[in-house]
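**Entry details**
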Amino acid sequence: MLTNLEHLGLAVRDLPAATALYTRLLGQPPYKTEHVVSEAVDTVFFQVGGSKIELLAGTSPDSAISKFLEKKPEGIHHVAFEVDDIEAEMARLRAEGFVLLNEHPKRGADNKLVCFVHPKSAGGVLVELCQEVKQ
């Protein structure tokens, strides 16, 4: 079950400039920066109440973020929801007819297991499922 809006992922071209902009906009610095090798992205996270804003910049022309920005302007890339059991939620969504972009959960940023739902099966929105990795 989806339990919470975990974060909004925003695709940006210039991560330092976007970080400065959101620091001023939100009135606080980011709590974390991270390079995610598997996705070829650099990320910056801001905490906003119980949710987060994730800035994403591609680190190679082949990254999903770089390809996204070739076709679209900077802005919302995905909506992420927290789940308690990502495997069970993936099975539920498959049974409901949603197309998943991942066969199995994978490691994502901010200590999460993640899976993406294809936008074509989710009303044009890329949806990310996130489950906290237990230490």
Remarks:
- The radius of gyration is 15 Å.
- Residues 55 and 74 are 10 Å apart (CA to CA).
- Residues 15-26 form the longest helix (12 residues).
- The chain has one domain: 2-132.
